[in-house]
Amino acid sequence: SQTNIFPDKSTNTYSYKASIIKGSEDNLQNIEGSYLGPVLRVKKGDKVRVRYENQIPAESIVHWHGLHVSHENDGHPAHVIGEGDTYYYEFEVMNRAGTYWFHPHPHRHTGEQVYQGLAGLFIVSDKEEEKLNLPQGEYDIPVVIQDRTFDDNKQLQYLGDGQMDRMQGFLGEQILINGKIDNTLELGANGKYRLRLLNGSNSRAYKLAWDHGEAITVLGVDGGLLKAPKRMPYLMLGPAQRVDIWLDLSQQVENSRIKLVHLPISLDMMGGGMMNGGMMGNSNSNHLPYDTQFDIMEINVGASAENDAQLPGELSSLNTLAATDAINKNNPRTFTFAMGGMMEWTINGHTYNGTEVAEEETVKLDTTEIWRINNGSQFSSDPDDDSGMMGGGMHGNGGMMGGQGGMGNMMQMPHPVHIHQLQFNILNRNADKVDDKLWEATKDGFINEGRQDSVYLLPGMQMDLIMRFEDFKGLFLYHCHNLEHEDMGMMRNFKIV
Ligand code: C2O
Ligand code: CU
Ligand code: CU
């Protein structure tokens, strides 16, 4: 569709346009002036039927990110439909109250289609949450954070030509909030707000903080409310992650302004030097650099808009899976996210291959397991290790690649790891092999509590996740949610039998 992102020129985008056939107005909220998909609001236990009609000139399918649904309802790439075709979803909402979302999932084109505008929110409420006096209606605000680049014609520009851009993932030149270049929210003094943040960016992570120095108060994560609010000096938000935060403007005077900013971190690992210029073609070097501060969103505090919402001391009686529940507690299933031999992003050395499932990817219904995910290179930084093309050919060549560790280390990147169909608990986050400076700058921004479906795995990081496979057998995905990595094949199936 044609969208007015800019006042003077229309921009071509894709959009999810929704209408309600049965249900009520309350189930569908369009974000005014936004090309992004609508906000669908449902209650736990609701039966949802969606008729999805594909009107873009490419194959696509809708994935309900974070929802506990059957294979047929999960938007597996195997179910893509062509232009003009229709797909029916029918499921019961089994998830806890929380901020979920939906986006396309065709293999190789997810990044591009999300980038063009296909993404929307799926907000679930439940009885437990209703008992709390949390902000509602106009005080409950979606905040979808994305980075985008526009060309001189004000058209969305996706990747540059270089292989480099693809390897790194798309990084944009400016921040859009809810699909708008005007990143200001007009809120009322004295109001108490619930901001539902979604990092809907293709590959960029954010280190978020309030510029007036106050802590960020977190209410919930991917899979719903935490047990209790958590105050954090800053927050790391990787692609696909959601976090609900509490914002109390009762200390703010009218006409004041506060900002949510990105704080500098050194994540532009593959951005510089030799790699950038020579070997793999130029990358789009105008993107917002990770290592500078920039504004995410500005809040203009307007006339008083007092509401009686309260920040509860306790939010939910969430049950947490324990290591002792796992059938493999002494022997976690291990998945390593790393660069493979031919400049590919791989999981345990494999890339996506249709509905292929390896033995190590088959799990049993009604069991609880620990998955250990590693961000580690296939290439050792040990100069005696000759494995792989880059490892053998290039490492140890300190001068050329600019580091002793050679290509293996150079090509480490964060991987935002996501598992479909379930919400896990984090048992452990091991940062022993994470660069000290990077860890020091990020460690207070991670949330290990609550149910989550996506985590931001820094280079060298290892995490133990605990999850239960229930209700549905079938084929589901786990993958890197850096959408360019995903499209390059850093995605695999797991099968529940
Ligand atoms: Cu949000 Cu498989 O994706
Ligand atoms: Cu998903
Ligand atoms: Cu990745």
TrEMBL record:
InterPro entries assigned to the protein according to its UniProt record, in alphabetical order: Cu-oxidase-like_N, Cu-oxidase_2nd, Cu-oxidase_C, Cu-oxidase_fam, Cu_oxidase_CS, Cu_oxidase_Cu_BS, Cupredoxin
Keywords recorded for this protein, A-Z: Metal-binding, Oxidoreductase
Any Pfam family hit: Cu-oxidase_2
UniProt domain Plastocyanin-like: residue ranges: 18-128, 153-255, 408-495
Gene3D superfamilies, per the entry: Cupredoxins - blue copper proteins
Record-given protein name: Bilirubin oxidase
Source organism of this protein record: Christiangramia forsetii
Source taxonomy: Bacteria, Pseudomonadati, Bacteroidota, Flavobacteriia, Flavobacteriales
